[in-house]
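Late entry, written up from scratch paper. The run itself happened at the end of the previous shift, but nothing got recorded in the book at the time, so transcribing now.
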Amino acid sequence: MDSPRWLPLEANPEVMTKFLHSLGMIPTWQFGDVYGLDPELLSMVPRPVCAVLLLFPVTEKYEAFKLEEEEKIKAEGQNVSSDVYFIKQTIGNACGTIGLIHAVANNQKHLEFEPNSPLKKFLEQTSKMTPEEKATFLEKDESIRVTHESSAQEGQTEAPSIDEKVNLHFIAFVNVGGHLYELDGRKPFPIVHGKTSEDNFLEDAVEVCKTFMARDPQEVRFTIIAFSKDSY
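Output as recorded:
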């Protein structure tokens, strides 16, 4: 049986904030573009930041690195906190939604939800599941799928067709227990990138984003989005 496919979500902060609001998250935190990586431009991002999303091109260099990284971690091991919420991606083109779920699920102590929030309900129902079980549960979650579909059609660019191969991928960075985690539903497990703190989290996440850019210096298709406390 073919795995289900969704329309890709645009890397548009407004669409993302609206998407989560539609699923019952009270928008006290908002997504916003990170316009550049130097300290001056990073200082313009509203603080605190509780998650960072990176949209990047999946190239041959990246795929080779991904396999290498996986083998290295399997051989050497890593300590992943049991508090990290991680979901595998089994739905084609759903990486934007998976990234948003990772951003929200690992920051529930900061966020507020409406009483009947479909997203909060999904997180509660899946909290004790394995990453694979969570993925299967998402495939069956109509409220998230329907909201994803309408959000995918709301961006500024025309949504590609559902069967079009999209070679851009979303991942999330979060701080859980003072450690920086990269959460990518295409990988078998979270990746630990060392220690971080609430104050330095954005800068630490951006340092990891820079390594993605350095691997493909000819590429320009990178977008970084911060999930910040609404300062307005």
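Residues 73 and 191 are 9 Å apart (CA to CA).
(Scratch paper discarded after transcription.)
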